[in-house]
Amino acid sequence: MTHREGLRANSTHFSLDGTPFHILGGSIHYFRVPRAYWRDRLIKLKGCGLNTLTTYVPWNLHEPEKGVYCFNDQLDLVAYIHLAAELDLCVILRPGPYICAEWDLGGLPSWLLRDKNMKLRTTYSGFTAAVNSYFDNLIPRVAPLQFKRGGPIIAVQVENEYGSYAKDEHYLTFVKEALESRGIIELLLTCDNREGLKCGGVNGALQTINLQKLTFGSIQYLANLQPQKPLLVMEYWCGWYDVWGGAHHVFSAQDMIAVLKELFEHGVSINLYMFHGGTSFGFMNGATDLTSYKPQINSYDYDAPLSENGEYTIKYHLLRNLLRGVQNELPCLPAVQDKQVYEPIVLSQHISLWDSLQCADKPFRSDDPVNMENLPVNHDNGQSYGYTLYETTIYKGGALNSRNHVRDRAMVFVDKQFIGILDYTMQEIVVPHGERERILGLLVENCGRVNYGPALDKQRKGLVGDITLNYVPLKKFTMYSLDLNPSFINRLQSLRWKSTSQNPLYPAFFRGSLIVEGHPRDTFISLPGWSKGIVIVNGKNLGRHWSVGPQNTLYLPAPWLSSGDNQVIVFEEHRAGCKIHFAKKPQHGRTTDVSRQPFCNLL
Asked: Which residues lie closer than 8 Å to 160 by C-beta, 6 or more apart?
């Protein structure tokens, strides 16, 4: 093999294989895009004038249970990198172990939290042992794909935004050495926002910056920090993420282009975050908790140049025009996927949550409530996502107080009758008095683990401590793990479903069929009149629906449909609508300009 000189940062400009190289990167996460669309999205990235693909690697998907590794199908990272190489794209790999990414627990697997002494993102032995085991399986897969060995990987990031966390001065050195000892030989990077740069670096790795606007002298600060080094904006934020109950964030295309022009004029390399956001399907969304807990939505559209379903936006076209002056020639653009507004469908069958409990794993009994992660399920890896039902017997009514031990939202029932919600803002409700013993049930939802900030250390879910009735802690709980995974849904199919003409007992599952004539097309599901729950199509969990918005549609990719009959299941907590509808475009609700809000409020 011919020797190739990798990416070098020994002067004010990068060089690759001995030739000056300007990094024009864009982030597309393989785990947020249906595999059938990987090629389409990467061709569109290259067609815009970019030369480098960046991607995170989510540990929690690749090692869902301790010692069980998944690197196939949707998670075939090696195939994704090979595809980039085939399209003549360089790759910057961001393997974590922590990635943030508005992803549950920042990509860390929840089974880590079974250790009551766990200290995430530190050199605590329980954490480093888990990282070493994971890297033993991940790094040998990607090391042969480095540029010096003939592959497309030109740089590897050491952890992610550690300067904003910085709880262990030895931690970044540990991660750096863990990468190098397993064969990483390309340029190493760290990235941080302006404040994080102060303590987010490690010897031997180039520091890069994350930003959206050129304020507070951020670029000059980075230049002063590393004299005679090239400048890279590792995350140039094209937009922003959204949280449930908030507005849809947008960022002006003209403002974006103005900043990029100035960066290019000063020779700064960039990576667009996100170039194409995609979707946090299922239960994989993260949450923020700096002043209050706010779960993020499933759409990761991010107001990016390519929309959630891969459509060109005004940002894409303006960016492509800008990059014409940087690249010699741009390829022709592929056509946008066809979309379809299918006829509304009625979900004609239902089954109550209570009847579905026979499909759950064997219930667990304990004097005290046990948090999700420590339940003895999933081969003793605990429960990662979804709901847990806690039941106990009560003999009177009165004041039920959560003591702020609900994570994150509990529907409260007495003898299967809904009486109220307990969450971060509502920590006490009144239980009606009764003449006999009754069953108190709390259906607790993990709405998404925090992915950024100090609250990362407090992300155990379910009931994380005692709850009281008239100031007395409740005891003797029966707990059902309801992660609503494919095996649960399959078992659910074999039960006897009722007609929706009968009054459903909520929460409930509703079932119907979408008939696709001819070749399937992309579409969006809309649920007017429904309240809150999840949508599953052909066994694929599309994510949550919630009437509080801003997300009012769920993306349904064509590759997940088939010609003919397609099964649609909606889990609904409170109130079902008459039908589910389809749309060609997403509905984001009210919008707000991200540049008009203080940075601290956005996080």
From this structure: 56, 94, 96, 98, 99, 100, 106, 191
Residue 597 is predicted with a pLDDT of: 67
Identify the three-state secondary structure at position 308. coil
Q: Cβ(192)–Cβ(209) under 8 Å? A: yes
DSSP 8-state assignment for residue 67: T
pLDDT, residue 598, reads 57
Check if the beta carbon of residue 141 is closer than 8 Å to that of residue 81.
no
Nearest to 108 by CA among 88, 91, 122, 93: 122
C-beta of residue 176 within 8 angstroms of C-beta of residue 112: no
Instruction: Scan for tokens 């030109």, then name that residue.
Output: 154
pLDDT band for 601, please (50, 70, 90 cuts): very low
Please name each of the domains of the chain with its CATH number. Answer: 23-322 (3.20.20.80), 353-482 (2.60.120.260), 500-583 (2.60.120.260)
CA distance 157 to 66: 24
Cα 135 from Cα 137, distance rounded (Å): 5
Strands 523-526 and 553-556 turn out to be antiparallel
pLDDT at residue 337, rounded to an integer? 87
Q: How far is CA 110 from CA 30, 287, 372, 459, 539, in A?
A: 21, 14, 9, 9, 23
* Catalytic site residue from 63, 102, 161, 373: 161
Element (H, E) at 508: strand 508-516
What is the spatial distance between Cα 224 and Cα 243, in angstroms, rounded to a whole number? 36
Euclidean distance between CA atoms 506 and 503, whole angstroms: 9
What counts of helices (H) and strands (E) characterise the chain?
11, 36
Picking from 136, 154, 24, the residue whose alpha carbon sits closest to that of residue 81 is: 154
Distance CA 283, CA 386 (A): 7
Which one-letter DSSP state was computed for residue 361?
A: P
Catalytic annotation present for 235: yes
pTM for this one? 0.97
Residue range 169-188, pLDDT digits in tens: 999 999 999 999 999 999 99
**Which helix H or strand E contains 446, and what residues bound it?**
strand 438-446
| Rounded distance between C-alpha atoms, residue 22 and residue 201, angstroms | 22
Q: From CA 297, how far away is CA 292, in angstroms rounded? A: 16
Three-class SS state of 460: coil
Q: Which residues contact 93 (CB under 8 A, 6 or more apart)?
A: 54, 55, 57, 81, 142, 153, 155, 156, 157
Strand duo 409-414 + 472-473: pairing? unpaired
Q: Which of 235, 308, 572, 573 is catalytic?
A: 235
Asked whether the beta carbons of 20 and 13 are under 8 A apart, the reply is yes
pLDDT of 510 above 50 = yes
pLDDT digit string, tens, across residues 70-110:
999 999 999 999 999 999 999 999 999 999 999 999 999 99
Give the per-residue pLDDT at 529: 97
Coil vs helix vs strand at 525:
strand
pLDDT of res. 595: 83
In this predicted model, which residue has the larger pLDDT, 128 or 599?
128
